[in-house]
């Protein structure tokens, strides 16, 4: 087959993947990508577990060791079907704590310790780099298979390093493009995940196609294959119990701890339904991926010439049979396996490297500078991109200098053993509140060291560890032999390293956790992780908002002291143009608060505490208070300060209430102004319209007169309105001085009745009085009192709708004082309107009928207040009834 | 045939003024002062335009506008709304309900005629 | 006030769900046991790769099938597939094992 065709098809496939990733990103941003979050896409994205090592290598493994290859798939199967045990909790924590990587998980659990972050990141980079190299090797090897067929006429020559370099560079470009597009807090990459899901399908289809071809195309069915197995070199199942159990456990543990698996399992997870579906669907995927492995191995061993590389049977079998199309599909499957693993691994590692190594360094270099959020954002993006390049460059260099070949092929399991060192700290952190940072660090460092010494470094061959040293131990210390600790021999090196590293790792982890004492933040995080189901909901959407600022204030008071905290909050609120103590939780405010708090508790703690409240992470206030209390003790705040702060927070609440009242008043003021506008503009409208008509000179004498008198009426109405308004303003402002005179009630009523009758509007009114009862001498502002009476009487003239309007004025002395009732024989005021008749501008009927602006009763009420009396509407009197009460002492 | 206009307004003096101005310009004017029955009046007259006050006894001009716009017959009827309150939110409210034009009192007679002519130009 | 009938009904639902979850927790343990079972008889007679493979794949598929059935059953329950009736919906704090003696507020 022409390798130029192969290159073209690969390039088209890569271009297609770019399109898929680009489209998915676009869809996700447009909010239309519901299917992007479907459980199937999630399940398929998990398939990055099946790298080129498993795509090609499983067949090779089976050809060499029979059924043992399935252990690599059985472990993840058990983890997935057992999702309720660990994965469900891991995913929930990842969500609640906004975990970005496995390093972040460990760091976050143990009090946001950056030391742990750095250790895990280092471990991950060291463990993953050879694995990336392995993928590059598989791509170059598979290309070489085709170019060998091609006898070197095509573009692909035997220059494998150049191919690997191109592949690495291409992958770097893809990963940078789609892995660092946005700096989303939850670190999801829809484009990448979708492209990987597509690759997962290609992988599966390719392997199934080859398998079906081998079983039914070459061997004539399953029964024949079974016979071939029995006749093959691997007919006998050489079951090594230790390896079998250890590898199953190892693959299960690695499935949880591999950075790339954590990325797709936890970080890219959108909801728990995805996990539930994947719990059976992903094992099914693995099942299908391994179904034809043994048949392919057996048929390959039987049909291909002696000495063929079994790692490439998947490719060479179809090629040997002349099925170039199938071989091409198989090549794309292997290519997909390699590239998807490298892409996700690069994203996961770059996130860790930039978050736990580059950013802390960068931040410490530019101490004190005012941090601009956009600035930091750019740095993070650049750090990510550079990290991706560096990770892939490491992979390439490792491939280049390890020289490929056998050493690299064994690296898969070695890499697994390295990364599972995270397991004790991870599971301990998930299920045991007593786990501490010191314990985790001790276990990790010890496990890492043992792995490097017993497995990783010896894998480089004799270049690093001389054969004598391997045989007799360093400096002749026998019990330190890298592959036989304490003289216990006979274990396979991988099992040996796995057992010892994890045993010592776990032992140190537990011992140091037991003897050390966690910091408050560690304990808080410990509770958050272990009890995550009590703190968080299954789906996103925790309530936040108003409570935030208040919670922050309470916490800040505990730490900084009441007065200082309140001053800070009030100043910040004022800066935002708000009154009161609760500013909006803007980034600026949070940053400022963090800075203030870090003066007391240190930057990391301050950041964590503010983040817990404002970041929306579901932490209970009680937990926070526990931490705050401890801090408070450390700072030895006195109990008086505590009392004082409570007093101040009470004051703060009172001020807040006052503020609310003012807001209410402001709303009322707006309504009032709106009314005034209406009252002024209405007469002006008539005045303007008729003035223009008169100016035009188009009307004759009588009309002219009529229009002029309308103008006059409206002008009077305006004047009266202004008078009333001014009167009311003076009364309400309390600036009025009472002109106290002595007069009998009868005389005041006489004056009021006369004045009210003289008014032009309204109907004649029959007024009934009992003069004997009115013979009471008053010491009050009689002018103002008569103003109130005039108002009531005028209202009766205007509004009483009886055929013969009648008003009864009835005076009586009661305990409450001197009572004057005005009762007419009209329909009265509807019950639902009683409450508002004393409000400004409340008119119950047509405006014109009322004449006034609706301020009369409002003014009357103000006057009665000033006189020390009251005016009220008296329901149930058969008509409209007003009761004016005067204090007897004043009479 | 003269174009018909319904004035929904409760201030007698304003009614008289507008009635005079529009009649002089050749309009067939119907006056309606009650908010509650205004829609019925419009249905009966089927005018070419309406002058609608906002603050009416019984029912607000907004409610009337809303009901008119809900009726397919009057969905496109030119409605000129007049208000004396003249606040921004009043205008926004009227716009939201689909008013054709919105004027704040007081206005000049010429302006009123011009606007009314404008909104009925297509009819 | 809740009628007397409802709690009994809810109790049944909750009980069913708890048992489903128990079953789900059991699946991986059964799987581990079955996958390790071949180790028990090792040593004497040589085993066949074909038969061993057949056994492993049957067990494997069985696990997948049970996991599938259980997830389907759980998804039908109110509260979604991931909810556990023993866990509070939200908010409540854990008082169970506050190790290290959470000190009371105030000076030491």
Q: What this model shows, in words?
A:
The complex is a heterotrimer of chains A (891), B (123) and C (108). Chain A is mainly alpha-helical and 891 residues long. Chain A is built from 37 helices and 8 strands. Chain A has 4 domains: 3-364 and 371-411, Sodium/glucose cotransporter (Up-down Bundle); 542-637, no CATH class; 676-732, Signal transduction histidine kinase, dimerisation/phosphotransfer (DHp) domain (Helix Hairpins), CATH 1.10.287; 736-890, 2-Layer Sandwich (Heat Shock Protein 90). The N and C termini of chain A lie far apart (121 Å). Chain B has 123 residues and is α/β, with parallel strands linked by helices. Helices cover 42% and strands 20% of the residues of chain B. Chain B contains 5 helices and 5 strands, in the order βαβαβαβαβα. Chain B has helices at 12-24, 38-45, 61-70, 88-97, 109-119; strands at 4-8, 28-32, 49-53, 79-83, 101-104. Chain B has a 5-stranded parallel beta sheet, sandwiched between helices. With 108 residues, chain C is an all-alpha fold. Chain C is 59% helix and 2% strand. Chain C is elongated, with a radius of gyration of 23 Å. Chains in contact: A-B, A-C. At the A-C interface, α5, α11, β1, α12 and α14 of A face α1, β1 and α2 of C.
Assembly type of the shown chains?
A: heterotrimer
Give the overall average pLDDT of chain C: 69
Largest interface by Cβ-Cβ < 8 Å: A-C, 71 and 58 residues
Q: Which residues of chain C sit in consecutive blocks of at least 5 with pLDDT less than 50?
A: 1-8, 89-108
CATH fold-level name of chain B: Rossmann fold
Q: How many domains, in number, for the residues of chain B?
A: 1
The overall pLDDT of chain B, averaged over residues, is 86
Strand content of chain C: under 5%
CATH level-four homologous superfamily name of chain B: Response regulator
Strand order of the largest sheet of chain B: 2-1-3-4-5
Number of strands of chain B: 5
Q: What is the CATH class of chain B? A: Alpha Beta
Contiguous low-pLDDT stretches of chain B (5 residues minimum) are: none
Tell me roughly what share of residues is in helical segments of chain C: 55-70%
